Amino acid sequence: SATTTGWHANLHVTAVSSGTWTIKLVDASASNFSDVADVTGGAFTAATGVTSQRISSALPTTALRRYVRYVATAVGGSSPTITFGLSIARN
Question: What mean pLDDT is reported for the chain?
């Protein structure tokens, strides 16, 4: 369900074949993501190799809509692939 008490997310990258990967969170109020928007503060630092990162909402009153997913974008590299685990929790 949606929340107005903030959130936090953890990213664990275990392998990157090539390129630079940007992973960000997006949310929506509808399951078909017809009103998708970037989550404010929901972008991880670009990953080029094994790493772990944690991000949190800027304020404990930050809203997060009901449906959340990630978008992973690769820049450069030859047939880039990434292996990672991502978790998000509402406060």
Answer: 94
pTM of the predicted structure, to 2 decimals: 0.89
Q: Write down the residue that tokens 């944690």 correspond to.
A: 54
Q: pLDDT tens digit string along 12-69?
A: 999 999 999 999 999 999 999 999 999 999 999 999 999 999 999 988 888 999 999 9
For 25, the token pair is 């969170």
Helical H segments across 1-91, by residue range:
none
Residues 72 and 20: their CA atoms lie apart, in Å, by 10
Q: How many angstroms separate the Cα of 87 from the Cα of each of 34, 43, 74, 78, 79?
A: 23, 13, 20, 28, 26
Other residues' Cβ atoms within 10 Å of the Cβ of residue 2: 12
pLDDT score, position 58: 86
